[in-house]
UniProtKB/TrEMBL annotation:
Signal peptide: none annotated. It comes from Pseudolactococcus chungangensis CAU 28 = DSM 22330. One of its GO terms (cellular component) is plasma membrane. Its main location: membrane. The keyword Transmembrane helix applies. Belongs to the UPF0718 family. The chain crosses the membrane at residues 49-67, 87-110, 116-138, 145-164, 210-228, 240-263, 275-297, 309-328. This is Permease. The keyword Nucleotide-binding does not apply.
């Protein structure tokens, strides 16, 4: 029963078959050849991601409506130590934001006087780990990989926030952020109808932001899946290359995308024999250490704190990547 649910609901085998039928019937292209196979991959992954994205972001929007920024600040204010970092990381999981979109929330939390370690736990977990990533990863790589990815992502966020808190780097936040006054806002208890409307609006907002990256990611994935020789990919990012995890991180940093855009690329690389740890390191580096987000963050924090954040994330992602490759040979 679980296999049937996993195949039909999460992996959407029925949709892949339908995409294959569509390509062969409408375009008259055999799906076992490069052009037809690429078109089937593109149609299938694009439709699947948008279906999952819409359902998941709607559900997350409902959940998020119970945790507006004002309520979140009240929950987090005054909380220090690992409990505060854990709560900050968990709240990051209900925010469907890319790294650049998380930074304004980070500024708001900092302005409200939240502990710096807590805000950085949020900043790490928000783009890397969310409820949607669990279902999306299950769809592509199965339940075990999805659950472990979320656990190690949360651990990285908690440890990273704890280290930054212990270093006492509050003075490394830019002065204009520390001197900014917290704005007041009207608090309204939402009805269920308004929460549903909020969920629908979240779908529109998130989908409106990420659709180009999804199409680009699926397009790259389709190209890798059907046109790039497996031997070429394995030589660069395969299990036998000891530098594969490091290379994956370096390749991922210049890319700006979220989990929805990077998963199709990871799926295509996985089909070419790239080990799961290398893919996890690639996905984490794209979502957490993308160059555009680091540029934005540099306007908020001073170089010492920015460098500390990058080093913590780099070390954590590399350890996670190598560990996945070691345990999932």
């Amino acid at each position: 029963m679980w296999t049937f649910i996993n195949d039909q609901l999460f992996k959407m085998v029925w949709l892949n078959d339908l995409a294959g039928w569509f390509v062969e019937t409408i375009f008259k292209l055999p799906t076992d050849e490069k052009i037809g196979g690429s078109l089937q991959f593109f149609i299938f992954d694009t439709v699947k991601i948008f279906i999952l994205l819409s359902v998941l972001i709607f559900c997350m929007g409902i959940i998020q409506s119970y945790f507006p920024p004002e309520r979140t600040k009240v929950l987090l204010r005054g909380m220090r130590g690992w409990k505060g970092n854990l709560l900050g990381a968990l709240i990051g999981t209900v925010t469907p934001f890319c790294s650049c979109s998380s930074i304004p929330i980070f500024i708001g939390f900092t302005t409200a006087g939240l502990p710096l370690g807590v805000t950085f736990s949020f900043l790490i977990s928000s783009p890397m780990v969310d409820i949607a990533s669990i279902i999306m990863l299950m769809s592509f790589f199965g339940l075990k990989i999805a659950v472990i990815y979320v656990i190690v992502g949360l651990l990285l966020a908690i440890i990273g926030g704890t280290v930054i808190d212990k270093l006492g780097m509050e003075n490394q936040v830019q002065e204009y952020i520390r001197n900014m006054e917290e704005g007041s806002s009207f608090k309204e208890e939402l009805t269920f109808k308004k929460r549903v409307s909020f969920g629908v609006e979240q779908v529109r907002e998130v989908a409106g932001k990420v659709w180009p990256y999804i199409l680009i990611g699926v397009g790259i994935g389709a190209g890798i899946h059907n046109w790039v020789p497996q031997s070429f990919v394995e030589n660069i990012l395969g299990q036998n290359n000891l530098l594969s995890v490091t290379l994956a991180v370096l390749i991922g940093i210049p890319i700006y995308a979220d989990i929805f855009g990077v998963l199709p690329i990871a799926e295509a690389l996985f089909s070419k024999g790239v080990p799961i740890g290398t893919l996890v390191a690639f996905m984490m580096s794209v979502t957490t250490l993308s160059l555009p987000s680091l540029i934005m963050l540099s306007k908020v924090v001073k170089p010492k704190l920015l460098g500390t954040f990058v080093i913590i994330c780099l070390i954590g992602i590399l350890i996670i990547g190598f560990s996945f490759n070691w345990f999932f040979v």
